[in-house]
Amino acid sequence: MSDEEPKKKKRRPFWRKRVRRSTTGGEHKPVLLAEVLDALKPQPGQTVIDCTLGFAGHSLELLKCISPDGLLIATDLDPANIEPAREKLEAEGGLFAVHHSNFAGLIGVLAMEGVTQVDGLLADLGMSSMQVDDRRRGFSFMRDGPLDMRMDPTRGRTAAQLLNTLPAEELAACFSELGDEPRAELIAAAIVEQRKTTPIERTKELRELIERVAPVQVLRGPGAPPERKQLLGPTTRVFQSLRILVNRELASLTHLLRMLPTILKPGATAAIISFHSGEDRLVKVAFREGFRAGIYDSVSADAVRPTFDERRANPRSRSAKLRVARKSAKPPASASL
Ligand SMILES: C[S@@+](CC[C@H](N)C(=O)[O-])C[C@H]1O[C@@H](n2cnc3c(N)ncnc32)[C@H](O)[C@@H]1O
């Protein structure tokens, strides 16, 4: 026998592990793909950014269009996405750089790549199917797991930490402003009451609390919203609002929208897909204001929605809205570097 201590196996954090998920990587279907390509019209030799790499669904198609000598720069907040997406892009070949970064830090990423302006930019906001389906991330109330919800598990406060410390008013404001939840105050008060004795740590615990204090009420009769919409219910709204709060999603988007005129070359196009009314409003207002200021010479009059066929084939695309803005060929001086 040797005197040497048996070597301890170093545990890898879960976002670095290869895991079996109920969604295999290939199952994340890129939303509004044809519409995005039609808007950006990526050409060989161009430099384009995919702010939300995910499983590289959009990135891969963008890379094919700009290859062999174009450059794709892609970012994602979730470190678990980087390696699988890199492998997928490597199999395609072509020039690309992927960065584990918030798109709010895009200027720094571009500086690292020696790029100042690009020919096109895509942001496909929200979560990927793989994130939703991984119970350990805590995004979905359909699966029991720890209430984490951080897209970047290397930093920031988890949903459980926020739920168990924020004052009732802040929780209610989150559910109401980010989730449009009418019974926000009731739910926030119940959370504060419960955490006095038992902290809320798991998705199941939060779901059960919401179902107890704010059961789904299906309204019937003339003027009542469609039943399917009502059944989305308070649990969906509270979980979505918490995720937005945990990841400071509106702040990152606001930052991106402010940077856009600087990042785009004259004549370049940005395409943004959102899944939440608050995000879509931010995009719509920023594009309209940019149009009035002469920064953009063309912006979507209405959001582009998935076709019936796409919604049927990919139910997660249902709430997607795409908006597009093209930077003016001669923008006002303040709109470029
Ligand atoms: C809907 S998925 C993108 C899917 C991708 N378009 C595809 O086809 O595979 C959204 C992705 O954006 C990432 N994300 C969300 N907010 C981000 C941010 N502020 N900065 C960078 N990535 C972000 C998420 O981690 C997630 O992987």
Describe what you observe in this structure:
Helix 8 packs across helix 9. The longest helix has 20 residues. It is globular and about 60 Å long. The chain contains 13 helices and seven strands. Helices cover 42% and strands 13% of the residues. The protein has 337 residues and is an alpha/beta fold. A seven-stranded mixed sheet has the order 3-2-1-4-5-7-6, sandwiched between helices. The chain folds into two domains: 191 residues, Vaccinia Virus protein VP39 (Rossmann fold), CATH 3.40.50; 94 residues, DNA polymerase, domain 1, CATH 1.10.150. The N terminus is likely disordered. Bound molecules: S-adenosylmethionine. S-adenosylmethionine binds next to helix 2 and strand 2.
